[in-house]
Design brief:
- The chain is an alpha/beta fold.
- It has one domain: Rossmann fold, CATH 3.40.50.
- 26% of the residues lie in helices and 27% in strands.
- It is built from 5 helices and 9 strands.
- The chain has a 6-stranded mixed beta sheet, with helices on both faces. A 3-stranded antiparallel beta sheet has the order 1-9-8.
- Helix 3 crosses helix 4.
- The chain is globular.
- It starts with a helix and ends in a 5-residue tail after the last strand.
- Bound molecules: inosinic acid and magnesium ion.
- The site of magnesium ion has 5 residues, from strand 5.
Length: 211
Amino acid sequence: MMLTCAQVLSEGKAVGVRLWPVREEKRKAVLATMLKVKEVLFSSEEIEEKVRELAERITEDYQGEEPLLVGILRGAVVVLADLMRCVELPCEIDFMEVSSYGASTSTSGVVRILKDLRENVTGRHVLIVDDIIDSGLTLSYLRRFLLARKPASLEMLALLSKPSRRQVDLNVKYVGFEVPDVFVVGYGIDYAGAYRNLKDIHAVEPRTAEG
Ligand code: IMP
Ligand code: MG
């Protein structure tokens, strides 16, 4: 029997994937926020096709180069893993981690570098890969941070973009899908650390009194 995500959550059944990380604290935090996983916004098939398209553009745009794909931990892990395997060029990957929202669904506007790159990006063609761009504050900060190291070029990719939420003007060259102002989870994107392992991308909303 196939259960929807919402059913899995409300009935506490694990179907194929385990929705909760095992850590009890996190589990409590997630439960306390009473979020409800809603409809599928993008199916794994749609995402796969989009990632392939983005990779084709990258392959074309970086002909003769050896780009460095910089994944922003932890949300970009899934999209980066899929993307890099569709890029038909020699390329390298590296990671950065920046502070995120924690257990709130709105941005704090505070960006902190938790993990810096291992690679020297001076003279390299750098492509920042992120899961979702919301206010744009994170990517805007990272862009300035990395430009100071004088890369040969610096572009950005976001699988999802919420244009209506933008607080800064930012030219993101590669955007997978534009989404309205909803909170999303799945395909690497989390809420309080949970739901990253869902194959599709879902919208979540605060749970109403009726559930
Ligand atoms: P920004 O700095 O406001 O653009 O925030 C970007 C980061 O916030 C993304 O890389 C995500 O980690 C997180 N984020 C923004 N919107 C969502 C969402 O709808 N679901 C989960 N994480 C989100
Ligand atoms: Mg992120």
